[in-house]
Design goal:
Blueprint: H1 3-25, H2 30-33, H3 35-47, H4 56-72, E1 103-107, E2 118-119, E3 137-141
Antiparallel strand pairs: 1-2, 1-3
Helix pairs in contact: 1-4, 3-4
Length: about 150
């Protein structure tokens, strides 16, 4: 496996962790009502525990099982579809030349970082992380990742 293949696999795994976090944050999600989805969700969550000795292949298999359980349970998005939060959002000031809005986002607070991003309001606390239980951390979203 090449370095770019490994980077792709790590990114896909981080996206799956973010999707699991978003799924767990749903108040009335299918993972609360369907026993197969609940079992697959708990298995994936247990493998993400800091004390777990799971290898990446086990984690990928658990995410695959969860995706299949969601699809069988009637969630057409599967696991990956839980990342479509806020797609196409427009922010004030985008069309004004020379004005660049500062967007604050809430990021994963965990030791195993995921790619979940949530809008973070200034005067409100960051949303809780459904995997770790703590609050997500706020950070300014930069346009240029090297800046």
């Amino acid at each position: 496996m090449t370095a770019s293949d490994m980077a792709y696999e790590e990114r896909r795994r981080a996206d799956s962790i973010a999707a699991l976090c978003a799924l767990l944050a749903e108040r009335n999600g299918l993972w609360r009502t369907d026993s197969d989805v609940a079992r697959a969700t708990e298995r994936a969550r247990d493998l993400l525990d800091p004390d777990s000795t799971a290898d990446p292949d086990q984690l990928d298999a658990a995410f695959g099982e969860l995706d299949e359980a969601l699809l069988r349970g009637g969630d057409a998005r599967g696991l990956g579809g839980h990342l479509r939060v806020g797609a196409g959002q427009q922010y004030p000031g985008q069309a004004i030349p020379g004005v660049h809005p500062m967007i604050k986002v809430a990021l994963c607070p965990g030791t195993v970082l995921c790619t979940r991003r949530e809008p973070a309001k200034d005067l409100r606390p960051a949303p809780p992380c459904a995997l770790n239980g703590g609050r997500m951390r706020k950070e300014r979203l930069r346009r240029d990742p090297t800046a």
